[in-house]
Amino acid sequence: MISVLLVDDHELVRTGIRRLLDDQRGLKVIDEACTGEEAILKARQNKPDVVLMDVNMPGIGGLEATRKLQQFDSSIRVIVCTVHTEEPFPTRLLEAGAAGYLTKGCGIDEIATAIDAVYRGERYICSEIAQHIALSMMPGASPTPFNRLSQREMQVMLMITQGQNVQEISDKLCLSPKTISTYRHRLFEKLGVLNDVELTRLAIRHDMIENVKEA
After folding, report:
1. d(CA 49, CA 1)
2. CATH classification at residue 161
3. How far from chain centre, in Å, is Cα 203?
4. What is the pLDDT of residues 139-157, one digit of tens each?
5. What does the pLDDT look like over 75-104, one tens digit per residue?
6. Same structural domain for residues 177 and 104?
């Protein structure tokens, strides 16, 4: 029996996926979490085989949660399940240690297949994501400005666009406010923005923020 931890900040999404997975032979959802921080806590408590992880959530979100989970126990397989299909999300999550990457448009059969694959030590990337990654590597491809960010800069950027201030980010990432300010300054320079508002608008234009539309 493969044990699964569901992580998504939308209760309706968790409930729907759980009901579908409950009908799959050999799979058992042992717990749910609605933030990255809660995912880490419940993974430590329950030691699931697989974590089905959303990306955009309050707090540290799915990127940092994936990285921390792999540092804690690399035997826990993380499958990202998100609306984000474009780079740099897939590459950043895979670099952080995710073993699989699915879109929320995939069916339950594919989710079950992905869970089985990563449990057996394989990687699973849905065809849509694989195509986006391949196209981004072709000559002449136009990367988004967010591709220039380092892993840590990317994490800080995501938290800033959630409205978190330097002190809040510092507390959640266990880094000094000075260090967070340095990352913030560097990502502003790389992206050519002057403040948090300009950063958020740029993130919206490049679909880096889920469920937000620019007026």
Report:
1. 9
2. 1.10.10.10
3. 16
4. 766 678 998 999 999 999 9
5. 999 999 998 888 889 999 999 999 999 998
6. no
Structure tokens at 8: 């998504």
DSSP string, 109-171: HHHHHHHHHHHTT--EE-HHHHHHHHHHTSTT----GGGGS-HHHHHHHHHHTTT--HHHHHH
pTM of the model: 0.88
Q: How many domains does the chain fold into? A: 2
Which of 136, 162, 189 is the C-terminal boundary of a domain? 136
CA 24 – CA 108 distance, rounded (Å):
9
Of 136, 154, 173, the one marking the end of a domain is 136
Give the whole-angstrom CA distance, residue 180 versus residue 176.
Answer: 6
List the beta bridge partners of residue 101. 80, 125
Q: Domain residues for 120?
A: 2-136
Lowest pLDDT segment from 37-41, 134-138, 142-146, 166-170: 134-138
